[in-house]
Amino acid sequence: MARRNPGPDPKAAALAETRCLNPHPEAVRDAAFLGSEFFDARDVVQVKYEMVRRVKAEDAPVTQAAAAFGFSRPSYYQAAARLEESGLAGLVRPQQPARPPEDRPTPQTLLTSPNVNSPRTDPKRCSMQPEVSPQDQRAGR
Q1: For a pLDDT cut of 70, what percent of the chain falls above it?
Q2: Which of 1 and 131 is assigned the larger pLDDT?
Q3: pLDDT score of 128
Q4: Which of 49, 59, 99, 121 could connect to 114 by a Cys-Cys bridge, CB 3.0–4.6 Å?
Q5: Same domain assignment for residues 64 and 119
Q6: Is the domain of 83 the same as that of 37?
Q7: What is the pLDDT of residues 99-112, one digit of tens each?
Q8: Average of per-residue pLDDT values in the chain
Q9: Are residues 59 and 121 in the same domain?
Q10: CA 22 to CA 2: how far, in whole Å?
Q11: Which one is predicted more confidently, 27 or 37?
Q12: Residue 76 contacts residue 51 (beta carbons within 8 Å)
């Protein structure tokens, strides 16, 4: 009998909704997170907190702790500073500002609207004849 897909994971959905979903849970290699019911590598706040705690409370080297938790050294220092300044809330990924629509013209706009700065698109100056440079005019071409 085929297994049914159980559907979306409610915990993953809740973590994503609160911007706490770790984008790379597979990078967490710390023993506490492997095979644990309590520790969840998908929870980026828990992962960062444990990384900082490991360095501060257990005197683990920053490079070793950062690698075990799937982060870089600069990410460790950033997490440690945010935890110190804002507590656990500082470890939540900041909300990305909505990107405004770009003011670039679309390809369709470029093809259908004349470029007012180009003499080739000015109807008074545009002809089917190719432009002749002054040098070509003097040479009689």
Answers
A1: 70
A2: 131
A3: 55
A4: 121
A5: no
A6: yes
A7: 666 677 677 776 67
A8: 83
A9: no
A10: 30
A11: 27
A12: yes
Q: Quick one: 82 and 119 in the same domain?
A: no
pLDDT value, residue 46: 97
Q: Count of domains in the chain?
A: 2
- Whole-angstrom distance, CA of residue 140 vs CA of residue 105: 41
Q: Is residue 29 part of a domain?
A: yes
User: Cα separation of 69 and 50, whole Å?
Assistant: 8
Triad 36, 59, 75: Cα angle to 5°? 70
77-113: buried (b, 16+ CB within 10 Å) or exposed (e) per residue?
A: eebbebbeeeeeebbeeeeeeeeeeeeeeeeeeeeee
What whole-number distance in Å separates Cα of residue 116 and Cα of residue 5? 58
The verdict on residue 65 lying in a domain is: yes
Asked if residue 19 belongs to a domain, the reply is yes
Q: Classify residue 60: in a domain, yes or no.
A: yes
pLDDT band for 75, please (50, 70, 90 cuts): very high
